[in-house]
Design brief:
The complex is a heterodimer of chains A (140) and B (113).
Chain A (H helix, E strand, L loop, with lengths): L3 E9 L5 H17 L3 E17 L2 E13 L3 H12 L3 E8 L1 H20 L16 H7 L1
Antiparallel strand pairs in A: 1-3, 1-4, 2-3
Chain B lengths: L1 H9 L8 H9 L6 H8 L9 H4 L10 H4 L12 H4 L3 H16 L10
Chain lengths: 140, 113
């Protein structure tokens, strides 16, 4: 099956000691590996002010991860662990591979188009060579 | 469509034949040059250009709250297209991005009192 990509962000209580943060990340990595997935990247964004209060707190420690897996089981397990983990206040998983695919497609199309007509050449079947495309459009 | 709009407004070279080029993208099913037509009919309004089209962005990242912030009101509501000039496609992506950001407390659902 095709590999899926997810963004996983979670917020820990701001008073969580550094060691515990690392422990949470390590357990998630372990859990992902056990289910056949992989955590490609994990980034600590650090303490950030949240846009609204969560559990009466205004700040939280953000951790960002990129998860790759072939099926949803991995995410299910990661979310279960986040749910039972005490210092975790909030988490969000977003499946991204389809959006990335779309982004890739649009990018390729744009590049193709840019190669075909440098600026804007409206319905002109006559050959408008790439560099003087601007002039051709202006004279019309 | 998205990329056709931007160059059209950037190029001041052909002022005379503004009619034909604007009908060009529409024929291809791209985004119509709405603001330009409206200006011709009634009065000249300041043209609002979709910021994301100008940047040619193919994806709006929900993690960058500072990019999304200008598109919400102080109370936390998402600004409509008519206020920001965002094109339909980018507004669609934008709302999704804003809603994701709200879920992870990067943006507020509603301003706190």
């Amino acid at each position: 099956m095709e590999e899926r990509q997810y963004d996983l962000i979670f917020i820990l209580r701001p008073d969580t000691p550094e060691a515990e943060i690392d422990k949470v990340i390590a357990t998630l990595e372990h859990a992902a590996a056990e289910k056949g997935g992989k955590i490609e990247k994990s980034e600590k964004w650090g303490r950030k002010r949240m846009a609204y209060r969560v559990q009466k707190l205004r700040e939280g420690f953000y951790v960002y991860m990129v998860v790759k897996s072939a099926h949803g089981e991995v995410v299910k397990e990661l979310e279960r662990r986040l749910k039972v983990s005490d210092p975790v206040m909030k988490y969000l998983t977003v499946r991204l591979d389809e959006e990335l695919k779309r982004q890739e497609k649009l990018k390729r199309r744009r590049e193709r188009r840019a190669a075909r007509r440098p600026r804007k050449a409206a319905p002109v079947p006559a050959a408008a060579p790439p560099p003087p495309g601007e002039q051709a459009a202006a004279t019309r | 469509m998205a990329d056709e709009r931007a160059p059209q407004q950037q190029s001041p070279a052909p002022p005379g034949p503004s009619g034909p080029p604007s009908s060009g993208p529409r024929a291809q099913g791209g985004r119509p040059g709405g603001p330009a037509k409206r200006g011709k009919r009634s009065f000249v309004r300041r043209k609002k250009v979709c910021r994301f089209c100008v940047d040619k962005s193919d994806y709006i990242d929900y993690k960058k709250a500072e990019i999304l912030a200008p598109f919400i009101q102080e109370r936390g509501k998402i600004l409509p297209r008519r206020m920001t000039g965002t094109c339909a496609r980018h507004q669609r992506w934008l709302t999704v991005a804003i809603k994701r950001a709200q879920n992870i407390a990067l943006l507020p659902f509603a301003a706190e009192l």
